[in-house]
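Q: Could you write out the predicted structure for this multi-component system? I'm mainly interested in how the pieces pack against one another.
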Amino acid sequence: MKDTRLTALLGIELPILQAPMAGVQGSALALAVCRAGGLGALPCAMLTPEMLRAELETLAAETTRPWNLNFFCHVPPAPAPARETHWRARLAPYYAEYDIDPAGIPAGPGRAPFSAALADLIEAWRPPVVSFHFGLPAPALLTRVKGWGARVLASATSVAEARWLEAHGADVIIAQGLEAGGHRGMFLETDLSTQLGSLALVPQVVQAVNVPVVAAGGIADAAGVAAALALGAAGVQVGTAYLLCPEATTSPLHRAALQGPEAAHTALTHLFTGRPARGIVNRLMRELGPMGAEPPAFPLATAAVTPLRTAAEARGSTDFTPLWCGQNAQGCQNIAAETLTRQLAGGLPRH
Amino acid sequence: MKDTRLTALLGIELPILQAPMAGVQGSALALAVCRAGGLGALPCAMLTPEMLRAELETLAAETTRPWNLNFFCHVPPAPAPARETHWRARLAPYYAEYDIDPAGIPAGPGRAPFSAALADLIEAWRPPVVSFHFGLPAPALLTRVKGWGARVLASATSVAEARWLEAHGADVIIAQGLEAGGHRGMFLETDLSTQLGSLALVPQVVQAVNVPVVAAGGIADAAGVAAALALGAAGVQVGTAYLLCPEATTSPLHRAALQGPEAAHTALTHLFTGRPARGIVNRLMRELGPMGAEPPAFPLATAAVTPLRTAAEARGSTDFTPLWCGQNAQGCQNIAAETLTRQLAGGLPRH
């Protein structure tokens, strides 16, 4: 039985969504997925206005199919100098190891939430699909986005979050299972023990809401797509499997880690940004504990780690690199994203 | 495409295994599942020899279909008086609250691992299927079990554990996803971050071993069964969904919790036994932290909590009760286990 609610709503051929992955992809990956008939996504949270404008021009020029812009909806934290000082003290031995002068490290947010200014910037392109992580923007801003005809997707990590998102205007709920790589979309939940594996989360969200549900987390191949649809999902969102595609901008070090034995062990960590996100366990996570050390609130934690990351990567080391990755890297292949999307579509009914 | 490897190997009609759940079920539940064509299981770890003998007589008298005996394979820990003292000190405020004299609490293991004496006891009944949690028994003992024709099932929580179990003689691997209720079968893994959601674990185990793989964790209905099979599992093991069946011996307090809003929030906790097991979050877990407080090693932690549990339950409280439950209690129904098994079978291909 083919569920066409999602494809009809979004105007896509295949109910396969490419997960927006800030820092490892741009419009090239999104366009490749769109060409295959899926929904390509552009992660916007780490782009400057100039970069975002350039990417929008590329998307508009290269395809007439729908694409998805993704934004974060976190509330920027108040500066907490004591916590920042404590955090930098925890990192001091590493600064010493790499001859980094901590006094020279700029503070800086790194990731800006969706805003009226961003709405101004993107409105001219009338993005057909806009997705949000960490909740939804304020009602007036959401109304504006929906006003130009955009379909709104948002991530839920629990049944309570799914119900909240539906009540506040999301057109589609992405049920993000615990297996997913990158940032947990948690916005009502704060306790990691509330986070459910996809096989438990998806059917509970499907039962709780009336809008179409997209399954995310652990889906790496056609079999995973078939399983997600069996659970009642109207479509899937796949991230990790695309990381080795040539259209992704995944660094060579990250690519090597995804193909090595270390990819078998990921963990949720807040060390790199201040919010829990799943990545391959590396030295910083092992030594401080992936959820230890009380870094500053998201996204402030990033600034202090960045120079360590840069210095270590220059020596060929991923000791301080966030190696975002889900719990199932088995689907990662160095093949065109268009081919991968078509392979995933093999798990759809009657396709 | 119907995968008949598992049903042929175990001599069952349906590839649906009822998860052995010590403390909440005996032969009655196992027999009901057998009647429906699935594989019923008797959890043996908490039975005295007399109780085990009586249950075996019942199973042998009531069915000619195969059934499964389940045992634990932990290495009994050395007594650690300092840790026990520390643990009882952490519980002291609760003892005071319930007027319990800590000096009067007996130590005691609570759960014995599989042994030559247990093999002597069960051999006369030639159990057709024997399953193990926390690894496998020593090679000579395993050879004895297989020698009377029993098929051996064992739980893996990671790809490494699955490979180890296959190399050491398991005929079937149960891939226990993080969603599962009760004790994690971890025996090589010690770090909880190695534990994968079913949607990630099952396909990776299927690819890693040649023996049939049974998916466990989060499967609550026919849709879950279909999803597990789509991932390559040859069958499923279902536990939580059976807890409300009249044939289970689940206590009224536990039944109420499974049907209340609290069932939506489970966590892995070592507070009740010393090993991580998933249960509904209750007062003890909230106040000490589910993985906090350093209780004695499995199964020694149990003794000190038992009198608190007894006293609280007498007042109608589950504050100190292990309310084992998986991450998906949606499938719990107060219906005959035979009916539930047939409902689950609705997710099988061409059935």
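A: Regarding packing and overall arrangement: Chain A has two domains: 1-74+111-247+336-351, 80-110+251-329.
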